[in-house]
């Protein structure tokens, strides 16, 4: 028996934990602790501990598939690539679109966005950050000059006050929750804002139960009270910010008095005031948020508001403070960094900037579209309602028929795609719509890198061979490019060559290479090969801003796109469970994780359930203006009256049958966290 341990990085959340894959006779059979990681120090959550269980699942894709007469038939790589090249050549330009993948490596995403721009000549390039943290990228970049997490994960254990809003760390990012518990044991105050009493809220000293969609009112009300009491950090404001006077005038309106904000949010005045006192009494306050703040039609303004709170109190640029958006999927930060977005090249260099366009045209030896393309929601709308506008779609590793809102709308869109290629590790629900399906390698079968939520670039290492004739994503992309006459522009022979090309063009990554991150990762920006990386951003100046100052501007509360009424009297919000990850493609193929949580549910407040005559375990029909879904009821006091919750991982009870497609006007992120619904007990259930 041959036994070896291969260190790698977890394929699930954005925390970026490391572990060893246990390999016996060339096959991954288990995970084991990797103690060197500064992120997780050898500890793992349940998903990480069982991250080996889906790797050798018997339904892994092993060969290319081509749909003929409505059925998939096994094909060779030559057949599949020849067909794709022929079809893609017919749809070059703006009639084609590319969706990259937050679960794939940096190298894969760099290759995919380059393929879209160079080979397909399309500006329509996006990935699922659009559905989660696009408001973070836009919001923080607008006020700080960078859309990234300002601090390090380890910093959270050094804070004196953790202000957590719209984030269930103990289920979504358990090893980050561990850092917050370390701070709590040292005496830090923990404030959690959430309409549910989640495991995270259960650890809080103060749980603020505000209604979904009232974040701006809450944050403005807090800042109103801070300014009224003279608790703002005037030294920081004067030295490092601009725009404060106009911002203050907006905040100090009666609309944002604690009394009025209490009426809007459903939060007692004293809780608002107590949170302000704790934040301002603390030497270091860290703000932490995830999708509960971003997935709104005012998501960008929500993000700005949490940034303003930290600016107002001077909690930027030092350890234990900062604005800490926790990325959802393992490489959503890296995919953004790689330019898998419609408005930027790698390193957030604008497609609208002629200097940037020339830089990449010179490097890639090709003309490229110098305009902002369509986002994922805009792509879906175009395929569904304007099929003459878009014809062809290439998806790498995404599963929009589960992950996107209003599934009936997505179903219509995917059926309208004239030529659809899906590249994945399983025949996903989305892949069923495809004309060609291509088998990719999973994280355990490839070398590469991914970038976690704290901007740490870390290694993926190959531990076993892939099933059948599956290939690296970047290799598949390069093979298609070669067949389409662009082979010399995609002539890499290893993942490190892909990385080196990217790093040479990306200022934040310029000083990083495989050799430097062999033992542990480096945090960008890392501008030179002797640079140690950057643990805390904005320590002296906001380098991304023209004058080095962060910018205040007024933000006003506005209601969600869809409010409750007599026909739809409840607010539905969505989120995750500790046992599963987004569309469940990998976790539901883990025997252990699926045993712990085999299906979804809808949480209903006890009083609401009593009024509706619904009991624990009843099958109910939840319905909105877009559709309906049958789902088991979970009756609990741990959710605010008038609010309901569903996890979004489960095909058989998909929350996104009923969620709203309305999106933030700047980021185009859908409002998953608020939609108006009703519920009834299913007849005969």
Question: Can you put this structure into words, describing what you see?
Answer:
With 685 residues, the protein is of the alpha/beta class. It has four domains: 3-49, Single Sheet (N-terminal domain of TfIIb), CATH 2.20.25.90; 65-130 and 330-508, Rossmann fold (3-Layer(aba) Sandwich), CATH 3.40.50; 150-325, 3-Layer(aba) Sandwich (Dimethylsulfoxide Reductase, domain 2), CATH 3.40.228.10; 570-681, Barwin-like endoglucanases (Beta Barrel). 30% of the residues lie in helices and 18% in strands. It is built from 22 helices and 28 strands. The strands form seven sheets. It has a seven-stranded mixed sheet with strand order 5-4-18-17-16-6-7, with helices on one face. A six-stranded mixed beta barrel has the order 23-27-24-26-25-28. A five-stranded parallel sheet has the order 10-9-8-12-13. A hairpin with a 3-residue loop joins strand 14 and strand 15 (349-350). Helix 3 packs parallel to helix 19 and helix 16 packs across helix 18 (407-416). The longest helix is centred in the first third of the chain and has 14 residues, at 77-90. The termini are far apart. 59% of the residues are buried. The mean pLDDT is 94.
């Amino acid at each position: 028996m041959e036994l070896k341990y291969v260190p790698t990085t977890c394929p699930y959340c954005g925390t970026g934990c490391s572990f060893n894959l246990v390999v016996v006779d060339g096959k991954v059979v288990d995970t084991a602790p990797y103690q060197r990681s500064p992120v997780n120090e050898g500890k793992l959550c349940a998903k990480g501990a069982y991250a080996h269980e889906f790797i050798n699942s018997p339904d892994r894709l092993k060969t290319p598939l081509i749909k003929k007469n409505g059925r998939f038939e096994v094909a060779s790589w030559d057949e599949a690539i020849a067909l794709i090249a022929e079809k893609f050549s017919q749809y070059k330009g703006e009639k084609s679109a590319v969706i990259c993948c937050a679960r794939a490596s940096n190298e894969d995403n760099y290759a995919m966005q380059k393929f879209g721009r160079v080979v397909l000549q399309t500006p329509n390039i996006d990935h699922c950050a659009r559905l989660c943290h696009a408001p973070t990228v836009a919001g923080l970049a607008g006020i700080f000059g960078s859309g990234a997490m300002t601090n390090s994960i380890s910093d959270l254990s050094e804070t004196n006050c953790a202000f957590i809003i719209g984030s269930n760390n103990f289920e979504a990012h358990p090893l980050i929750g561990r850092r917050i518990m370390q701070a709590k044991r040292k005496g830090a105050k923990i404030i959690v804002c959430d309409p549910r009493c989640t495991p995270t809220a259960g650890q809080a000293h103060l749980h603020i139960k505000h209604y979904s969609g009232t974040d701006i009112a809450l944050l403005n009300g807090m800042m109103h009270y801070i300014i009224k009491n003279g608790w703002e950090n005037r030294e920081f404001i004067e030295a490092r910010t601009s725009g404060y006077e106009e911002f203050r005038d907006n905040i100090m309106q009666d609309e944002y008095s604690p009394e009025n904000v209490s009426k809007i949010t459903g939060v007692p005045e004293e809780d608002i005031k107590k949170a302000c006192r704790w934040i301002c009494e603390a030497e270091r306050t860290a703000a932490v948020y995830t999708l509960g703040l971003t997935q709104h039609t005012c998501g960008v303004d929500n993000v700005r508001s949490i940034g303003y709170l930290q600016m107002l109190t001077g909690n930027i640029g030092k350890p234990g403070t900062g604005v800490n958006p926790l990325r959802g999927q393992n490489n959503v930060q890296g995919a953004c960094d790689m330019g898998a977005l419609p408005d930027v090249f790698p390193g957030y260099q604008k497609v609208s900037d002629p200097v940037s366009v020339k830089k990449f045209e010179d490097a890639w030896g090709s003309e490229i579209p110098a305009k902002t393309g369509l986002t994922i929601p805009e792509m879906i709308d175009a395929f569904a309602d304007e099929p003459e506008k878009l014809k062809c779609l290439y998806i790498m590793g995404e599963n929009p028929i589960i992950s996107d809102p209003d599934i009936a709308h997505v179903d219509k869109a995917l059926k309208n795609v004239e030529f659809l290629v899906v590249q994945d590790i399983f025949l996903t629900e989305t892949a069923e719509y495809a004309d060609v399906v291509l088998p990719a390698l999973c994280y355990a079968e490839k070398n590469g890198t991914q970038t976690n939520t704290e901007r740490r670039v870390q290694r993926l290492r190959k531990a076993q061979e892939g099933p059948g004739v599956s290939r690296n994503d970047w290799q598949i992309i390069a093979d298609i490019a070669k067949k389409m006459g662009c082979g010399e522009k995609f002539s890499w022979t290893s993942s490190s060559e892909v990385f080196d090309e990217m790093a040479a063009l990306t200022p934040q990554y310029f000083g990083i290479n495989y050799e430097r991150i062999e033992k542990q990762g480096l945090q960008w920006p890392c501008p030179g090969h002797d640079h140690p990386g950057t643990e805390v951003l904005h320590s002296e100046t906001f380098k991304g801003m023209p004058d080095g100052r962060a910018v205040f501007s007024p933000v006003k509360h506005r209601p969600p796109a869809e409010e409750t009424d007599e026909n739809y009297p409840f607010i539905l919000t969505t989120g995750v469970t500790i046992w599963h990850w987004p569309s469940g493609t990998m976790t539901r193929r883990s025997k252990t994780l699926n045993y712990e949580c085999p299906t979804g549910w809808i949480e209903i407040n006890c009083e609401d359930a009593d009024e509706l005559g619904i009991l624990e375990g009843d099958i109910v029909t939840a319905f909105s203006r877009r559709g309906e879904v049958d789902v088991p009821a979970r009756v609990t006091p741990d959710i605010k009256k008038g609010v309901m919750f569903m996890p979004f991982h489960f095909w058989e009870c998909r929350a996104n049958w009923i969620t709203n497609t309305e999106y933030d006007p700047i980021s185009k992120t859908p409002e998953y966290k608020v939609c108006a619904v009703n519920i009834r007990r299913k007849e005969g259930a």
